[in-house]
Specification:
Blueprint: H1 5-8, H2 21-37, E1 45-51, H3 52-61, H4 63-71, H5 81-94, E2 96-99, E3 103-106, H6 109-112, E4 113-116, E5 126-134, E6 137-145, E7 157-159, E8 164-166
Parallel strand pairs: 1-4
Antiparallel strand pairs: 1-5, 2-3, 5-6, 6-7, 7-8
Helix pairs in contact: 2-4
């Protein structure tokens, strides 16, 4: 099997790819899935729950910033690090993110990124949940895990109430 240096090392913000590149990629994939599966739904708020290692060390390692940048459509390999502070300030000031193909969605990083120190999600120490809300109703919940530059989702959930239905 042939491995390139690009298979081993990923370009992105640091200090830890599992705490920054992974969450940024996961946020972008969540938005891709949101656009693909919920075109006609009214999403008015996003929330992100960081669990396990991401909750305990995420602020110091920049996981919260990576999530915000990912929700703004930034990709680790294309992000200009000089622009990151300005993009963060923009989101903190407006308390929303402009999601391409969907529009402006309320998202206040101080309120909508939850560092959940109590609940560990199964499957990986770097686990997170992305949630899309419409009014008071849960529209979509996508659990993900951050494996460095890999950020697979374990399922995309559509909810018409308290129970979720696996979409794919």
């Amino acid at each position: 099997m042939f491995l390139s240096v690009f298979d081993i090392f990923k370009v992105g913000i640091g200090p830890s790819s599992s705490h920054t590149v992974g969450p940024m990629v996961a946020a972008g994939r969540f938005l891709d899935d949101l656009r693909e599966h919920l075109v006609s739904c009214e999403v008015d708020r996003l929330r992100v729950f960081l669990h396990g290692s991401l909750a305990f060390t995420g602020k110091g390692h920049g996981s919260d910033r990576a999530v915000v940048l990912g929700l703004m459509g930034e990709r680790p390999e294309l992000l200009d690090p000089e622009m990151a502070d300005g993009l963060m300030e923009q989101t903190e000031t407006h308390k929303s993110v402009a999601v391409k193909g969907i529009g402006e969605i309320a998202f206040d990083p101080a309120e909508d990124i939850v560092f959940d120190f109590e609940q560990a999600l199964p499957g990986h120490a770097n686990a997170m949940r992305f949630v899309a809300l419409g009014g008071d109703k849960l529209i979509l919940c996508a659990p993900g895990m951050a494996h460095g530059a890999q950020a697979p989702f374990t399922g995309l959930w559509w909810s018409g109430g308290d129970s979720g239905v696996l979409v794919f």
